[in-house]
Every structure is written in C-alpha cells, then in structure tokens.
C-alpha cells in the first residue's frame, strides 16, 4: 500500500508541474505586458534549485546506491556515465526539434498584439498554419517528456526532494506556457486553441512519468534506480544551462537571473538541511 501511495504521490507532483504551463498560457492572454524582471528572477531561481539539488543531493545519492551495488570503482564510473547519458538524451531531443518549433525560445506577451495586426494577411493559408500549430505542440511534448520522468523519479525515491523539484519544474513551465501560446496563436489566430494546446502540452510530463514507470517497472532494482537517478541529475543540469539561464538572460538583466540562481540554491540548501537528522 505504501508503494502505491508513493507512486500516486509522485504522479500527482508530476501532473502539478506539467499543467503549470496553463498558468503561463493564461498570463499570456490576460496580462497587458510581460513582467520580464519577475520571469528573469524566477527562471534563475528554478535553475538554482535544479543545479544545486542535482549536484549536491541527486548525484550523491545515485553514487551511494551504485557503489553499494557494484563497488566503489564500478559504481563511480556508472554514476558518471549515467549522468552524462542523461545530458546526451536531452541534448539529442533538443537537436531533433527545429529551432522554430522550440518552445523554450523566449517570447513576450506584447507579441500577441503584433500577431493580431498580421492575422488578416495570414488567414488565406489556414491549413498550413494549423499544421504549424500541431507540429509545435508535438515539439513541446517531446521536450516535456524527460522532464516528467525526472520529476517522477525524484519524487518516487525521495518525496521531500520530489516536492522541491516539482516546484522548480513548475516555475520553469510558467514562462514556457507563454513561449508556447505565442507561436501557436501566431500559427492559428485562435486564442482558445493556443491556450488548449499549451495546457495539454503539459500532459506530456505526467505521460513521460507514466510510460517511463511502466517500461522500467519490471526491471526495477537498486542499480536501475541509481542509474536513473544519475541520469535525472544530468537532465536537470542540462535544462538549467541550456534553457533556463539563457531564457532568464533574454527576459531581464544579467544580475537578476544570477540573483535568482543564488536564491534558488540557498532555498534548496536550507530545505535539505531541515531534513538532516541530528546525530
């Protein structure tokens, strides 16, 4: 029963993180202008949380598990190999998605009015525009899939750690919802469809968690958990350096993103210390 509850809890956290894209999408339609300073700080904060927890907690826990299973030498090599394999996986996915369909390109709410002015010139080719919107939604889902597996795995192994990672991913997905809504609205001219596609794209994260769990469940062992945990650390570090920090730079001033990064690390460090048992 406890195992089932842990799985449901991990899945619920992943669902929460994924559907936060809908929050960003709603902001894109309801807000009058982009709060770039807030987005810059919040994305830096999310990157700080993910980088700190990856290197300090997740990588260390993966190494502990694998060295217990395979010994110090093989376990250390296995941890490092899985860490960079996680990076390679997300890098390949990012490479396969063309830049024009990449949902992690920074967009602003102000683009919405520019789109509306151009719609009369674009409506003659709605079939091609709709195709573009569908392709963009697929690109979003591909990007979010490994993020869902990362959140789910962390929550399954350590629930308290999973909560922190889910919040970091959710913060990351709010501006992503804006980045998703703007190009889809540009492709279709339909606000409702742009919101729906953005909201549903977040379902790729719990879907990634569910499919990953079902595939790996027959093979679950401490070694598999250790390898997966190390890969999760690599995925989150890559996301932080490749997506979050560059986007934070585009949205605001350089120092704001760095301040957010440091604050994220401090908050994550304190939250982890609160769970350390006194000797």
List the keywords.
11 helices; 279 residues; mainly alpha
Low-confidence stretches: 115-126
Domain module tally: 1
| Mean pLDDT reading | 77
Classify the helix fraction into a percent range: over 70%
What percent strand? under 5%
Radius of gyration based on Cα positions: 19 Å
Q: What is the H/E order?
A: HHHHHHHHHHH
Shape: globular
Number of discrete helical segments:
11
The main β sheet shows up as:
none
How many angstroms separate the termini? 31 Å
Number of strand elements? 0
Structural class: mainly alpha
Task: Please describe what this structure looks like.
The chain is mainly α and 279 residues long. It has one domain. It is built from eleven helices and no strands. Helix 6 packs across helix 10.
Topology:
Elements: H1 2-19, H2 21-30, H3 36-70, H4 72-96, H5 111-122, H6 126-157, H7 159-188, H8 191-201, H9 204-216, H10 222-251, H11 254-273
Helix pairs in contact: 1-6, 1-7, 1-9, 2-7, 2-8, 3-4, 3-7, 3-10, 3-11, 4-10, 6-7, 6-8, 6-9, 6-10, 7-8
């Amino acid at each position: 029963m406890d195992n089932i509850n842990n799985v449901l809890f991990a899945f619920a956290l992943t669902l929460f993180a994924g559907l936060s894209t809908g929050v960003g999408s709603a902001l894109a339609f309801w807000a009058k202008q982009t709060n770039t300073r807030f987005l810059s700080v919040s994305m830096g904060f999310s990157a700080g949380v993910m980088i700190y927890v990856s290197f300090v907690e997740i990588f260390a826990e993966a190494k502990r598990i694998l060295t217990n299973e395979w010994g110090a030498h093989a376990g250390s090599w296995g941890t490092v190999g899985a860490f960079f394999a996680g990076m390679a996986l997300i890098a390949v996915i990012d490479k396969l998605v063309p830049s024009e369909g990449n949902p992690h390109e920074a967009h602003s709410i102000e683009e919405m009015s520019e789109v509306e002015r151009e719609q009369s010139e674009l409506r003659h080719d709605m079939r091609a525009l709709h195709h573009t919107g569908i392709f963009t939604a697929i690109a979003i889902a591909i990007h979010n899939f490994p993020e869902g597996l990362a959140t789910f795995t962390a929550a399954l192994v350590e629930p308290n750690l999973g909560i922190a990672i889910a919040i970091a991913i959710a913060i990351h997905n709010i501006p992503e919802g804006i980045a998703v809504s703007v190009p889809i609205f540009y492709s279709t001219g339909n606000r409702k469809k742009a919101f729906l596609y953005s909201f549903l794209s977040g379902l790729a994260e719990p879907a990634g968690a569910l499919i990953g769990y079902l595939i790996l469940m027959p093979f679950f062992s401490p070694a598999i958990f250790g390898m997966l945990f190390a890969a999760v650390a690599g995925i989150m570090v890559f996301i932080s350096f490749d997506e979050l920090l560059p986007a934070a730079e585009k949205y605001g001033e350089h120092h704001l993103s760095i301040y957010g990064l440091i604050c994220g690390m401090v908050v994550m460090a304190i939250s982890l210390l609160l769970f350390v048992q006194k000797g």
